Amino acid sequence: MDTNVIIGIVAVVAIAIVLIAWGVWNDRSRKKALARAEAEAKAKADARIAAEQAQRESQSAAAQSAAESTSERTDAGEAPGSATAGGVAADKTAQEAPAKAEEPAPAAPESAPAASEPAPSPAPKPADKPESAGSRIQRLRAKLAKSTNPFGKALFNILTKDNLSEADWEDVEDTLLLADVGAEASEQLVEELRKDARITGKADAAEVRAGLKEKLLDLVGRDTDRRLNVNKPGANKPGVIIMVGVNGTGKTTTAGKLARLFVSEDKKVVMGAADTFRAAAADQLETWGAKVNVPVVRSDKDGADPASVAFEASARAKEDNADVLIIDTAGRLQNKANLMDELGKIRRVTEKNLPVDEVLLVLDATTGQNGMTQAKVFAEAIGITGVVLSKLDGSAKGGIVISVQKELGVPVKLVGLGEGPDDLAPFDPEGFVDGILA
Q1: What is the value of pTM for the model shown?
Q2: Biased-composition ranges for Low complexity (predicted)?
Q3: Which of 1-5, 280-284, 414-418 has the highest mean predicted lDDT (pLDDT)?
Q4: Which residues pair with 274 in a beta bridge?
């Protein structure tokens, strides 16, 4: 064999060995760095929890000591808050005027409190009373029906024509595609509508509506289990929900609205502000929590490790015996691998304290098929269990409900139809279909 060929083969083998060795070393280094980061996050969280516990115990001991001191003075015959100078004054009066000893002393004005009596603390601000889930569904159903919805109306207007032509059926399919129903689902629906005698014959508006409603309900999934996992029998307590999604979809707002929904069901909720990259995110979450008396665990500085906040929040929820923990995470682009890896870290660190029951992907319904691309990447990175569609305001993009479920195999569990604090409700398939056909 030619010497140059042998040298070339040896060189290729040597390069391959070097590359393999470098890859193994790099993988081990990355795992060691990740392990160190998780250990540091756990240590910081443990230290903070211990400090807070010590502070609460100190405050409790001080309050108990003050209460015991007041009780002892009362048992000894002193009025709570009275000073010993009162007794000296009484003795002096008795020495200077014994003849007046039997006269009653003038009563102290009722409006003058004892000098040492603490000022009354202001009454706590009453919490908002969130709207119940049942009421929300009815209200949002009516809201969707009143909206200008070209998706359902366009379909209905085409299908109520007599003796539909090929051009009409093409218009039906185009309408479905523009509504982001998806190519496969659109083709399936058109084929089923073509076989329905109520639609292909002499069109009767009531029969067309009934037929179209049935077909849409089948696509949306009328019997799909859309309950949140924390609401199912035998669910973990506390149940943990992680909110994920790209920037601008309304994750933090949705987390706050979801907390209100749980409070309306008399559940004890804790929220974790693990969005440490956006300065106002924790403040925003605290504002939502303050309205319904839900505590928020947050970092004391911007840019902190989000996994550390998640770990601390899970420890707090466990300690408080809460029903639900909601963890808000930072918005991230689905094509940024390091940010997507961070979601996995948040989940792993949280599960050192509590199992994660639910990962909800918040999608902006108006983004259409771009939202589908986002959904697929998030599903691969952290494993989503349900979808929340924000801004489902009856626009032409309502078909995203069908396509996102078909592509991901997970249900749409919650929808938002407005900016109000109670404009988030469990997704109701029949209400949705009735709304877009109204």
Answers
A1: 0.68
A2: 50-69, 104-118
A3: 280-284
A4: 329
Domains of the chain and any CATH numbers: 133-220 (1.20.120.140), 229-428 (3.40.50.300)
Q: In what order do the strands lie in the sheet with 239-244?
A: 296-297, 269-274, 324-329, 239-244, 356-364, 386-390, 412-416, 424-426
Q: What is the pLDDT of residue 99?
A: 41
Kindly report whether the peptide bond that precedes residue 238 is cis, defined as omega within 30 degrees of 0: yes
Comparing C-alpha atoms, which of 344, 400, 399 is closest to residue 374?
400
Residue ranges for the binding site for GTP? 245-252, 328-332, 390-393
What's the rounded Cα separation, in Å, for the pair 280 and 287? 11
Instruction: Rounding to the nearest 10 degrees, give the CA dihedral for residues 259, 264, 266, 268.
Output: 10
| CB 263, CB 277: distance < 8 Å | no
Annotated binding site: 245-252, 328-332, 390-393
User: Tens digits of per-residue pLDDT, 367-388?
Assistant: 766 667 777 778 777 788 999 9
**In sequence order, what are the residues at sequence separation of 6 or more whose Cβ sits closer than 8 angstroms to the Cβ of residue 122?**
none
Cα-based distances in Å from 2 to 8, 12, 13, 16, 413: 10, 16, 17, 22, 69
